Automatic annotation (TrEMBL), chains A, B, C, D:
Species per Swiss-Prot/TrEMBL record: Candidatus Enterococcus ferrettii
Aromatic amino acid beta-eliminating lyase/threonine aldolase domain location: 9-292
UniProt-recorded name of the protein: Threonine aldolase
Family, per entry: Belongs to the threonine aldolase family.
Matches recorded under InterPro entries: ArAA_b-elim_lyase/Thr_aldolase, PyrdxlP-dep_Trfase, PyrdxlP-dep_Trfase_major, PyrdxlP-dep_Trfase_small
Superkingdom to which the source organism belongs: Bacteria
UniProt entry tagged with the keyword Cell wall biogenesis/degradation: no
Keyword Glycoprotein: no
UniProt KW keywords: Pyridoxal phosphate
Cofactor(s) named in the record: pyridoxal 5'-phosphate
Length: 341, 341, 341, 341
């Protein structure tokens, strides 16, 4: 059965596996002090134009969000996020578990903007009762968003300016960062993100790795004793090499970017195929997630042969579904899908 | 340089990597719902003689300890453990971070006994102030312990009986479980552990996997909504297959046990070599960790050619150091080590 | 200066102070085991028609909400509440600090209804991703609400039925309960609340006490080791008598109800005065909080002589302000206020 | 029945009640912004010789410990304390509930010393695994201790010096502070404590108040947004005046010190009475708690007529019991007790 269900249906890119194999019996020290982890950090820093960047590798996205947000917030602060943000909806209360409120803002296709931040913070401090309320202490955005959309350079710069105005860090969740950076419609580079955000992560799990996210602190702002914080969250791998080796492979020979562009190409092929056949999209997504409006009967028929995700009801006769491409999507599978519609 | 520093210096056993490669491009659903995870659970259950066992795969030991203990304790309860237990000493406060006190008992070569449990619980409830104290709600043991020692069947059975008497679960941390089960001096099987403990985990990270621990609930006691709890702790892998595949390999063709026995054989070779040359051990460890007393000058010389761990000062002229073997230790490396002493 | 700023501007009702004085030198045991606390519980139970009720006295409202919600929720659960609920807005993240998300529902004049509960829970369990989301584990309502409104018997009964259908407890925050029960427009008694809610609290701080809330578990559902939970939250008074004595006074000779009715009478006098002079109310509040729409210039003038609370901007020329009466409000002060408008 | 069970068996000193009554109907703003609270702070500051002191009033001791420790520790830090410290033993895990480990040191009659601190911190940072351990981030002492003992000026100064050397705050729990300051054997004043400690609290609950502790930050180190932190812990009284008025009374006309000296006088009378009759003390306590060794048969007989506390078993024939005096203890009651032995 064809699957466009998500971008984590396969294992890892072959170059990632190859490097795991080649290095397998090399004895290395644990907990991220190995040589591969060090090399991977250097490779990533080359992309960032940010010599002061400090990088830590973690296993997954929710874990990364939870640790960063807990480490950067004061006990009385919460994190501002779109109401559709992953931390707001699909992390089973991971942020609240660590003691912090997610302060939600209405989203616009998954995005929030600088005016919302400014308005929230100013309204907060103008409120005579603000000492009884949760102070906004950080801004969380995802890029690409949960709707596959992207911040433009201008949007990102104005968010960054608003955050600096109020001296609260801007954190970018890049679970699908490669697919954003390689979109044909973006004007944002990884170096721009390093410059405009205080902390962000480069997603590996959805972009060619078995697991792993590269967390980047860009402003000499690595929290003190951060290894202890990682350990305290149960997130410190004994074999830290597992993450270092994977990111070393992904950031060698442009692999991360090449495989991301491939996923974008496949998504464009898929979208064009659907639109040429008269289907409409819910959102004109420039990244690897495509949101197509299907007649309910067509949906049922297609489900017999293809796996994809329910997104939301559109009207009584139609449903929005999501097709995701990835580094692993083949042109053949897209063509097979298009042949079925 | 030779390394006996720990049991997680290399990657994974070749059969583990082989299965990762073979299955790499098979599309599977996420979050542990894949077919490999299901197969791995079945394979493990065959070893347990416990049809009601419920198994979840997690990434690391501290994470597993943190999640199990948080899920099983009531808010007002703490966990009893040896003062040398991993949760007491080397998890950076991971248990306290989740709101629970570790109630420590004096260890005997890393172990605690049923009388200590009984005495603690009875003294607690006899104390007129016990409502102002942390109630003992669970018992944590490690097997092998941090000192490489093992519980005998009789010791484990009496701990189990004490826990049942007070209706508190017995949890066994099996980070190095294979090395305990394959020791020549044990009378405890994995099925015994499943019978006597309420929950335990089978360590993968230190026994041939890149990462991963298999958590086993043995008494129809899987906590409700446990997947949500895992997610809330940032511990739910999108590509759950990574863990399932590795345990499928480890529990096929007796691999887990064979490679564990190999490590034990290497440890015996190492210990015998030292003792034949007149060295003394701190503890007569029957597992893969060996604690040797070195003259300080010998220690310094040896450090130039071998990596091992400082354990503790013995006296002004001597130091205890730890040599660890593993599935990856070669006979050649042990012989090279012995040639150096 | 006149003050209608809130319902906690004075100390305690004279009968409360009188009993504190009379009993002052009587030696009693601590932590709520004193004889006054026992008597107070008996007095309250007489009002509840609920022999199985179990009562604990706590110091304040946020503390009570925090402890009850933490004690009743499972770790993976959150609490449903109106987006205007006190726990949602003005407790500085006290619920999240204890690890739980407040799941907000749009309010209707401060209230939520059974259909919202039913819809939320059913949608939650129908969502294929619900294991990645926070499960609704409890319903929080305030009565009177933050808008001074009241649930009717029918509304409360249907909320109760919805909660029982899904087996989640219904918790009523009665910080101003007396003012709700003595409203001329209510058909709900304290016994009804005991019957329909699983847990609720009878507010003392705003109804004649120096401090204190009486927390009532109505369904044999007092959490185990609840004294330890109170202690763990730093909420167990050494001199528990302070709370017991106050509630003993309040629930002797109908005092709690008489002084609540007085506040209602004063609120009606105030409201009638404003409406007779042509002012409009934002909400037709039947309780002790009155929300009056003032011209901005009138507001400024009035602020010179009277303290009251800003509620919200109405339009460019008008503002909504809140006047609160209480057990301590005198008829003279209301008449002075009305003379000023 | 006579009671020497504890120092919180009665209500409040008559001057405290008198001021509560006199001020009862004065309208004041809430949450500690009232005029009495301001006056009380000024009165206390007069005693401290510390113009930069910042004072907050809280309800109880465990609450105060929990809030201070949580507000001052970083997430990866724990608090050093004697193994007999109140936070270590009798706060039902209140510190761990907030995410922090209590790092215990062996006590000497309830006290710890500078060498222990220095040794712990130095050993910690010398340990190659310290990133996997809980960092010592604060020192907690009680004065008087749980054993009624006192730190000398020299001991306190050396603890203070050790803390400054490592830049970790020294926190003094003064639940019974008055009884320490008025001891005939102390050379420590309240101003000394303000100078040597970074934060401490002046106990009210056990020294004449109905409830309340005055928390003092002495080094311009009041945590930011501390009111929000108090609120988040459910510890912000709506009627903050309750605490302000009581401390205003206690710190007017030397009351706090006079009533503390009275308790000391009563304790001396009691101790001398026992020793003159040949009884021995476990500890030569200079404060209001006296630890007497009773024959078991004498104990049983005495329990028929006097309430006191079991402390610990001495030998098979003897038991240590505690007699506590307080501001409320009368000379008559001590004489009656002595007549019974």
């Amino acid at each position: 059965m064809l699957s466009f269900e998500n971008d984590y249906s396969e294992g890892a890119h072959e170059m990632v596996l190859k490097l795991l194999l080649e290095t397998n019996m090399q004895q290395e020290s644990g907990y991220g002090t190995d040589t591969f982890t060090q090399l991977a950090k250097e490779k990533i820093k080359e992309q960032l134009d940010c010599p002061e960047a400090e990088i830590k590798f973690l296993v997954g996205g929710t874990q990364t969000n939870q640790i960063v947000i807990t480490a950067l917030l004061k006990n009385y602060e919460g994190v501002l996020a779109a109401d559709t943000g992953h931390i707001s909806t699909h992390e089973a209360g991971a942020i609240e578990f660590c003691g912090h409120k997610v302060l939600t803002l209405p989203h616009n296709l998954g995005k929030i903007n600088a005016d919302q931040i400014r308005d929230y913070v100013e309204t907060f401090y103008a409120d005579g009762n603000h000492e009884h309320m949760v102070a906004p202490g950080m801004v969380y955005i995802s890029h690409p968003t949960e709707y596959g959309t992207l911040y433009s350079m201008e949007e990102l710069a104005s968010l960054s300016a608003a955050c600096r105005e109020f001296e609260i860090p801007l954190y970018l969740d890049g679970a699908r960062l490669g697919y954003g950076l390689m979109s044909e419609e973006t004007d944002v580079t990884m170096a721009d993100i390093a410059r405009l955000c205080d902390v962000f992560y480069i997603g590996g799990t959805k972009v060619g790795a078995l697991c792993g996210e590269a967390l980047v602190f860009t402003k000499n702002n690595l929290p003190k004793h951060f290894v202890s914080t990682i350990k305290q969250h149960g997130a410190l791998l004994a074999k830290g090499r597992l993450l270092g080796i994977q990111f070393l492979a992904l950031f060698s020979d442009n692999l991360y970017f090449d495989i991301s562009r491939h996923a974008i190409n496949m998504a464009q092929l898929l979208k064009n195929g659907f639109t040429q056949k008269g289907y409409q999209t819910l959102i004109d997504s420039p990244t690897n997630q495509q949101f197509i409006i299907l007649e309910n009967e067509k949906l049922k028929a297609l489900q017999q042969q293809v796996r994809f995700s329910f997104w939301e009801k559109y009207d009584d006769a139609h449903t929005v579904v999501r097709f995701a491409t990835s580094w692993a999507t083949t042109k053949e599978s897209v063509e097979q899908l298009l042949a079925l519609i």
